[in-house]
Amino acid sequence: YPSEFLMQKITEDNQIPVHLHVSVSLQYVAGLKGRALVEFFHSNIAEVENEELRHLMWSSVLFYKTPNVEVMACVLLSTKAIYFLLDDSFIHADEHQSDFWNKENSDCENSSFHLSCCFVLKLNDLQSVNVGLFDQYFRITGHSADHIVTCLTRDSYNTHTFIQQLMAVLSLLARTPSPEPVDKDFYSEFGSKNTGKMENYELIHSSRVKFIYPNEEEIGDLAFLVAEKMDGLTNLPSFNILLYVLAFQVNHFEGSAQNTSSLQPKTLILTSSDLFIFDEDYISYPLPEFAKEPPKRDKYQLADGRRIRDLDRVLMGYQTYPQALTFVFDDVQNQDLMQNLTLDHFGE
């Protein structure tokens, strides 16, 4: 252990997304290759001597107790646990985290010493995995509020690969088998007889961990919410969502020394007539079983919305992925009085 193929795969995956900035400690981890990376895992991270590193992924993560702080993490999946190697700046990002993170070595003044905190979620504590719409993110749920983490991969391939690797590792766990299920028909299996409402599609793994996928009604609810924001200007039956993607909105600051920009996480939704930007709560929904009250904010909050007919031009950057798009709209007060003069001039 490990095989050459696995070491090559982990080395290829060990790349920080270029648009995200991380601390020196995580940059050091990203510079490790092959056997050095595996030795780093066993000497600094692994809790058990005989556990195997199976998968590595860089992703933004959110914690249930700090839903407003998105932080970059190196996610390491082993045969015993999921490790989140976090940016050390995360500790100082929120004053309410002092009880969440027990810091003993936080007063190190030596600049050559770089601290990273590592959040560990043991596979035996894992209860469910919720996959987000279009595999843009997934939420891992343990037995308490401290053990709920959302990985915002913003990439269906990364999500799919991690879920597959997680299922494979869970298959190695020795848990008591679940009782044999009673044969049920389709409606009693997936529906509630009281409401007639379809539940989310659940796959119960042999390790008794639930993998929960969104059903078609979730898209329908989102389409209804978006249509509501349009003040009833659209015909709802013919209204549909063409694109749902987790993106970043670039806020540009013109400073005296140098121009800087910050990336604000947003959900972009494209319909046949409008472009919407939402602030979405990726961690609180669906409600965990121990939640005593609903979250303080709605799952979707409209940040901006524009009509496609008012779109003047789209500017595209020349860099490789991730691609930067700038949408330029005509900012006209009385939009409905605008006439399309090109048709009168050039056409019959």
TrEMBL record:
A UniProt-annotated Pfam family: PH_PLEKHM2
Matching InterPro entries: PH_domain-containing_M2, PH_NISCH_C, PH_PLEKHM2
Residues in Nischarin C-terminal PH domain copies: 241-347
GO cellular component: endosome membrane
Coiled coil regions, renumbered to chain: none
Gene Ontology terms describing biological process: Golgi organization; lysosome localization; regulation of protein localization
Keywords: Cytoplasm
Molecular functions (GO terms): kinesin binding
Localization: Cytoplasm
Domain PLEKHM2 PH: 114-178
Major place of residence: cytoplasm
PANTHER family linked: PLECKSTRIN HOMOLOGY DOMAIN-CONTAINING FAMILY M MEMBER 2
Protein name as annotated: NISCH protein
Species in which this protein is naturally found: Nicator chloris
